[in-house]
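Appendix C: a fully annotated inverse folding record. The material below is reproduced so that readers can follow the format used throughout the book. The structure is listed first as tokens, followed by the designed sequence.
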């Protein structure tokens, strides 16, 4: 549906150093009003000071985007730090199970040890953002295809123990996740990526640039994601999980997990929604529902302007070039590189 749009990406990776400087400015013209930024840097963002410093770096690169910052859940995080972070404008805390995705080596192994932190978050009205997978465990028949479904008992228990704590199950990929989130109370929501609305297992098996964590699942799972978006359920909203990696770290024997959609989010989103008859949900899914859950008002925005979405073919570049921190010329391969989308964006 052509028109002017300003959307919010409520799950994005903007990296650090040269890669951060390469990908963040693209948001200026991408139609992004607010972005919830992931903290899994090296080292991870574990303190208020680190989050504020990171926000300052990002703001210089994309001054009209409102960056919503998060802390990385780790043993060093305390209730006092939560209260300090809230006063400084930090929005959430991100939980990564140990070892399941990029830079998650310091992730959690047990939620119970963090209950004092969660209690403080509930009191301060901060958001707990969950990477909803358990680590693979072949002795217990757990692998990447069922790791999300096995995680859902943790989500239900956390909601039961902290019913007023706002929780986001991030980048859901399964019908089971959709059903569980729907069954829980209004303090539990779910983000969905663009690529999970389009991909299934066949699309990433052997295709490294479509490989992400959590992996895309079965056709019935993709259909469940599409149907909940098409329905217009207010607790399901956009979080792209845009995750840039240099080409050489993707095209290797053990490739990095991540799909890069950052520069063309609105065009990708329109293209995906139109493919299953949900283009009329673009503004709700891409802006309204997420803003309501995150309690983000128009007055909170830094001044980003809407961009014009047009139903006009756009060929995604094969590569995007940048120079890394060692001065080496590198490339990023964007999602659907070389393909022609049905929509494009004009600033």
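Designed amino acids, in order:
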């Amino acid at each position: 549906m052509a028109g002017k749009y300003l959307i919010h990406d409520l799950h994005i990776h903007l990296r650090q150093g040269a890669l951060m400087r390469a990908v963040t400015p693209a948001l200026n013209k991408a139609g992004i009003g607010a972005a919830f930024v992931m903290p899994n840097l090296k080292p991870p963002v574990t303190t208020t000071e680190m989050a504020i410093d990171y926000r300052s770096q990002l703001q210089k690169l994309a001054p009209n985007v409102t960056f919503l910052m998060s802390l990385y859940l780790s043993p060093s995080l305390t209730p006092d730090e939560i209260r300090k972070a809230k006063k400084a404008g930090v929005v959430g805390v991100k939980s990564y199970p140990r070892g399941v995705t990029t830079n998650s080596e310091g992730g959690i192994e047990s939620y119970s040890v963090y209950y004092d932190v969660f209690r403080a978050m509930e009191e301060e009205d901060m958001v707990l953002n969950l990477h909803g997978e358990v680590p693979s465990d072949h002795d217990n028949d757990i692998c990447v295809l069922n790791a999300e479904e096995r995680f859902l008992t943790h989500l239900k228990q956390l909601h039961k123990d902290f019913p007023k704590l706002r929780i986001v199950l991030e980048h859901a990929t399964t019908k089971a996740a959709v059903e569980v989130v729907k069954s829980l109370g209004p303090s539990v929501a779910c983000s969905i990526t663009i690529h999970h609305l389009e991909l299934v297992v066949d699309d990433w098996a052997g295709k490294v640039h479509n490989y992400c964590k959590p992996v895309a699942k079965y056709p019935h799972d993709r259909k469940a994601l599409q149907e909940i978006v098409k329905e217009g359920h207010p607790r399901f909203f956009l979080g792209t999980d845009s995750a840039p990696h240099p080409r050489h770290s993707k095209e290797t024997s053990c490739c990095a997990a991540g799909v890069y959609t950052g520069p063309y989010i609105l065009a990708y989103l329109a293209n995906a929604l139109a493919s299953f008859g949900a283009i009329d949900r673009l503004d709700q899914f891409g802006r309204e529902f997420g803003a309501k859950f995150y309690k983000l008002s128009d007055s909170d925005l830094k001044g980003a302007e809407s961009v014009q979405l047009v139903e006009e073919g756009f060929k995604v570049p094969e590569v995007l070039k940048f120079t890394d921190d060692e001065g080496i010329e590198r490339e990023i391969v964007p999602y659907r590189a070389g393909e022609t989308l049905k929509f494009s964006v004009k600033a």
